[in-house]
């Protein structure tokens, strides 16, 4: 477990190292508007739970409720929010692999893990999965701001409260879903072009089904996240009824602004997921519609050709009868008269069907449906 002391008014972040040490000492309450950030991996919390509960009792005046402890240790729990009169608990699912591997298929089944937060006034307890990149990035942002690409001052980057630090990490997690959404949209665009190409024989139906399942899964994850953040915002609004000074009201307004920004990002992901679902469904329907129209064109051409050759078959059948006396049978040029008549009938029927648009040039030339010759 790693412990930081963040003091926004002094623009300082103190790395207190691993906690608890060999001889742990009681922590002094942070001065001014500072707060502690205790981050731990889930297995570490299981081992050091008594020490963590003692720290919370000593520093914040109350330990975690047993139900909240079980929620923080549960690796299968969905995104949710709960609160007591002393602290708030936020559980938020993030992508297991973030940043994503470039060659990884964006439409594979999504793997997510929960990150838990217990928000006290003077301490933020965050529970992460093992080897969490989010935890390392947040540490780097606080301890090594000079290595970041931003050119803003350190004061603007330091979170003013434990709740603000939690919201910043939630925003980072949502950025992972937005990046995933862009990768999904790019892959779906490729499949849509293949589906709408009349010359292609699309065979990735298993991947299309997997993509739809992944989109449904992403939609469910984001819906749980939206509900959790909305519950958090509703709880923040109840704080406005308490007697507080202008500084506290200003800090609360900043929290509400950042919370609404997080909620807006989640809703943006949900909106794009719904749009991608509709686009994928529309592409599949257009593909089958194009194939159906192509089949209809083929059947129309075959039916027209059959209708043209029916009179010729009738003529051939008549002259093939076993009678001694038939017109033109014993004539020297009878064969050519028969062939000329059959050819004339074929041309007349061909022109007739052409004028009635039963057959077209594209159909005769073999141009696939939807393309122009």
From TrEMBL:
Molecular function per GO: cobalt ion binding; cobalt ion transmembrane transporter activity; magnesium ion binding; magnesium ion transmembrane transporter activity
Pfam families assigned to the protein according to its UniProt record, in alphabetical order: CorA
Cell compartments where the protein resides: Cell membrane
Annotated source species: Comamonas kerstersii
Cited SUPFAM superfamilies: CorA soluble domain-like (SSF143865), Magnesium transport protein CorA, transmembrane region (SSF144083)
GO CC annotations on file: plasma membrane
Database matches in Gene3D superfamilies: Magnesium transport protein CorA, transmembrane region
Official protein name in the record: Magnesium transporter CorA
Principal place of residence: membrane
Catalytic reaction(s) noted: Mg(2+)(in) = Mg(2+)(out)
Residue stretches spanning the membrane: 301-323, 335-354
Family: Belongs to the CorA metal ion transporter (MIT) (TC 1.A.35) family.
Organismal lineage: Bacteria, Pseudomonadati, Pseudomonadota, Betaproteobacteria, Burkholderiales
Function: Mediates influx of magnesium ions. Alternates between open and closed states. Activated by low cytoplasmic Mg(2+) levels. Inactive when cytoplasmic Mg(2+) levels are high.
InterPro entries, per database record: CorA_cytoplasmic_dom, CorA_TM1_TM2, MgTranspt_CorA/ZnTranspt_ZntB
Membrane topology: Multi-pass membrane protein
Keyword terms of this UniProt record: Cell membrane, Ion transport, Magnesium, Membrane, Transmembrane, Transmembrane helix, Transport
């Amino acid at each position: 477990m790693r412990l930081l002391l963040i003091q926004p008014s002094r623009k300082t972040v103190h790395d207190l190292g691993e906690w608890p040490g060999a001889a742990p000492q009681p922590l002094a309450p942070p001065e001014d508007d500072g707060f502690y950030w205790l981050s731990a991996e889930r297995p570490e919390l299981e081992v050091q739970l008594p020490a963590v509960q003692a720290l919370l009792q000593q520093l914040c005046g109350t330990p975690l409720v047993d139900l909240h402890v079980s929620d923080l240790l549960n690796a299968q729990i969905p995104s949710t929010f709960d609160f007591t009169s002393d602290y708030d608990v936020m559980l938020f699912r993030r992508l297991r692999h973030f940043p994503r591997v470039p060659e990884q298929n964006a439409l594979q089944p999504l793997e997510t893990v929960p990150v838990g937060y217990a928000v006290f006034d003077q301490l933020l307890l965050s529970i992460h999965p093992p080897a969490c990149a989010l935890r390392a990035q947040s540490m780097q942002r606080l301890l090594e701001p000079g290595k970041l690409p931003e050119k803003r001052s350190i004061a603007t980057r330091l979170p003013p409260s434990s709740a603000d630090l939690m919201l910043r990490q939630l925003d980072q997690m949502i950025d992972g879903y937005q990046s995933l959404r862009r990768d999904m949209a790019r892959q779906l665009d490729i499949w849509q072009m293949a589906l709408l190409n009349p010359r292609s024989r699309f065979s990735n139906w298993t991947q299309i089904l997997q993509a739809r399942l992944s989109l449904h899964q992403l939609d469910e994850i984001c819906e749980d996240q939206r509900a959790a953040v909305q519950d958090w915002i509703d709880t923040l609004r109840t704080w406005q009824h308490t007697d507080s000074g202008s500084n506290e009201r200003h800090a609360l307004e900043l929290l509400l602004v950042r919370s609404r920004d997080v909620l807006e990002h989640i809703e943006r992901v949900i909106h794009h997921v719904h749009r991608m679902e509709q686009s994928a469904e529309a592409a599949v329907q257009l593909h089958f519609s194009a194939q159906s129209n192509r089949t209809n064109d083929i059947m129309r051409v075959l039916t027209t050709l059959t209708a043209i050759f029916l009179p010729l078959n009738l003529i051939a059948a008549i002259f093939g009868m076993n009678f001694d006396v038939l017109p033109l049978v014993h004539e020297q040029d009878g064969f050519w008269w028969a062939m000329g008549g059959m050819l004339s009938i074929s041309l007349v029927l061909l022109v007739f069907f052409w004028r009635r648009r039963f057959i077209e040039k594209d159909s005769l030339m073999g141009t696939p449906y939807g393309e122009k010759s």
